[in-house]
Prior knowledge:
Blueprint: H1 7-20, H2 23-36, H3 41-61, E1 64-77, E2 83-95, E3 100-110, E4 115-128, E5 131-139, E6 149-160, E7 163-173, E8 178-190, E9 195-206, E10 211-222, E11 228-240, E12 243-257, E13 262-273, E14 277-289
Helix pairs in contact: 1-2, 1-3, 2-3
Amino acid sequence: MLAPDDMDIRAALARAYLWSGDRSAAQRELAGIEDRSPGNTEAAAIREQLEKDDSSVEEAGRRWGFAVAQSFSHVNFANRPSRTWADTSFAFFGNVGRTTAVSFGVEREDRRTATDTRFEARLDQQFGSGLRGYVAVAATPNANFREKWGVTGGVEADVASFATLLADVRHAEYQDASVTVFQPGMRVAVRKLGVNATVRMINLWDEEGTHRSGVSGRLDKAFSSGATLFAGAATYPDTEAGITRQVHSLFAGGTVPLTQKVSVRAGVDYDRRRETYTRKGASLGIQVRF
Length: 290
């Protein structure tokens, strides 16, 4: 490139790419300007235009839709025969305003010896350009190992162009126990690489006030084609059937768009639940937008 350090030329190129519809090229030029001239006013204006366009695209693409997923897990126990568990989920989601979205989901988990069907409703709200929040309620009629009912809420706050603070709180009531979980965290975006890195601390208190903690980490990679990949690991306290154990987990997967409205998601995961079982699972799902 001629005069690579000339910010006016790079800004003109970024605008030209943006107007032509090549958003990836515009992002690359803009990242170069921001690296060499962090306070560049022209770069700020281009960034604002890109974010407005992102909002418009997201709004158009998130009207209404549904998602269906199926997973199977092979579970090994220390003192009894291994089993195959199945999990089927369905969710319906959509926008009810420019800044508000709702979703309703049902999940049926079959563990051969017991089956739970869990229902959830969730409301997501955009409060401003850098602040988002949600609240969700869930219930499992005649619960065996899932919670009888639970309430979850969380917020995301953009504190910089590359950093977002996260906080989630959940309270759940089981047949013989109750737990409260608080998960503070941060997500960092590496724009040049198209990568997001998310780290969370996981804190759990049971009904007696006993505190347990853990941590999780996840990487997400987005491609210009619309495909995404993700991978992560965690060690955290988790409650099943009113009993809390430490879980060590690995997971990976991705999403591939088949058309503008249809995408497929697949994943694999591994859990080792202390003194209980080891689980290896795989899932496949499809999402359709109207």
